[in-house]
Specification:
Layout lengths: L1 H28 L19 E9 L2 E9 L2 E3 L18 E4 L7 E6 L1 H6 L3 E3 L8 H7 L5 H7 L3 E4 L2 H6 L8 H11 L2 E7 L3 E4 L1
Parallel strand pairs: 7-9
Antiparallel strand pairs: 1-2, 3-6, 4-5, 5-8
Length: 199
């Protein structure tokens, strides 16, 4: 558990550095300076984590280790472990889509506590392996396809784009609809990509 916490802290620090550098790059591009360069963190959450939590199982409250792989917490409004800032509405759930389709912000529900140990999907998951995606993208310009949809992309190379092309992933809208209909999470907002960085 200590080693996992170290890995989570490393990832958290890395995200803070990326946010700071991205803010500086945006500020430089917009010719802003000083406090205009600072990005404000709205929400940060770890996924692929195990946590010791209390959950009701067959009518009994138990302390259990919940490992969320490709999943994230979905605690409801009023839950003491929901961050205080969001306690009145429920735990925010960030569900990223792919480079060419939507992402979503949802919130956790009481039903998630009953059915999924307070967990929700953290994305749609891959439809194709990386090698399958590279084969499917052969002869195509994924960057131009995205640009034609008004999505600006910057990537390390064509291979990276091919591995991560939109069709390589399941349709996140369908995944979110299933979770919303099942009552595991509630949709709050749909986000449309306008810029993509792939390293």
């Amino acid at each position: 558990m200590a080693a996992m916490a170290c890995a989570a802290n490393y990832a958290w620090a890395n995200r803070q550095i990326i946010m700071t550098l991205a803010g500086e790059a945006v500020g430089e591009a917009l010719q802003a300076s000083g406090s205009d360069l600072r990005m404000r963190l709205v929400y940060d959450v770890s996924h692929n984590m195990a946590k010791l939590e209390e959950h009701v199982w067959k009518g009994e409250t138990l302390k259990v280790c919940v490992h969320r792989k490709g999943a994230t917490r979905a605690f409801p409004e009023g839950h003491p472990k929901t961050p205080s800032r969001y306690r009145a509405v429920g735990q925010p759930i960030l569900i990223p889509g792919d480079m060419g389709r939507s992402s979503f912000v949802c919130v956790g529900t009481g039903r998630a506590m009953e059915q999924t140990f307070g967990s929700s999907s953290h994305g749609a998951g891959r439809e194709m392996s990386r090698s399958q995606a590279k084969k499917a993208a052969k002869g195509r310009s994924v960057a131009q396809e995205l640009e034609s949809k008004g999505i600006h992309v910057m990537a390390e190379g064509r291979t990276t784009l091919a591995e991560e092309m939109p069709e390589a992933y399941k349709d996140v809208e369908r995944v979110v609809d299933v979770m919303h209909t099942a009552g595991i999470s509630k949709k709050v907002v749909r986000l449309r990509p306008i810029g993509v960085l792939k390293g």
